[in-house]
Amino acid sequence: VSAFLHALLGVIVLIFVVLVAWSMSVARDMAREEIRDRMEHISHAILHLAACRLDREQRVTIYEDEWLPELTYILNGDEARPVTRLFKGSWFAIGIFFTARRIADRLDRPAPEQARDLPQDADLAAPGTAPAELGRHHGRVGAVAVLADGRVASSGDDGRVLVWDPAAPGPPRPS
Amino acid sequence: MTYTGFVDHLDITPKMAKVLKVFLQDPAQPRYGFELMKLTGMASGSLYPMLANFEKHGWLTRRKENIDPHAVGRPARTTYTITGAAVSAARVQLAALSEQYRPPALRRLRPEGSTA
Prior knowledge:
The structure holds two protein chains of two kinds.
Chain A: H1 2-52, H2 56-76, H3 82-107, E1 120-121, E2 132-133, E3 141-146, E4 152-156, E5 161-164, E6 173-174
Antiparallel strand pairs in A: 1-2, 3-4, 4-5, 5-6
Helix pairs in contact in A: 1-2, 1-3, 2-3
Chain B: H1 14-25, E1 31-32, H2 33-40, H3 44-56, E2 60-64, H4 69-72, E3 78-82, H5 84-101
Antiparallel strand pairs in B: 1-3, 2-3
């Protein structure tokens, strides 16, 4: 009887140890995941704060088109270790935060040349009236074409083709 | 984005020279911001204002990389390419800068062992 009890006790202890080891590994994975998530949130939050220092138009061209994809790349990129990536991501965001205004001021210098880069809507029935600005590319415009339905398509150095509706100035549709 | 035409003389600092050198190694090669940070060892806080400055003066052009964000699983990043006019201007100015930083040649070389 005593031998049986010992065997039973042994099995119970074994099961217990396996359970503890398993739950610890689960807990460790969860903690790792959570830390990673939080760290990613921190760098995204810093970058978002940097974006708040820009005006609305620049938030698209600088923050959404450049900073955010770059941060996403750094956080998921080719750096060997996750902690290194998170550190680099936060470091990147902090640097950007402190110089956001300087970057924006340098890029925000409306030049006279820019006027001819804009897709514009001139009223052909009333020559001489001021053209309406529909919106703008983030680079020089290479070609403009009028579509059969009256809408206007333009392609630019920013690698995009945009379709404009002269009747409804506002954000264009990238296609 | 903002195109103000090409300004042919910029005051090049050593840090700017580092960045220009990367672009001159292969002028046709578009570079990413993070890539430049790694290659030059600069922080984003010094690199990005500099890139903006180069762009403002027509030395660099910015464009989105040509990928399908859904296929790659991340948004398209921005790349910088040096402009044709900037390639020659940068060459001239980097040469001038290196001339400026080069230590002067030793005045006099004495034969080994002589005391005079």
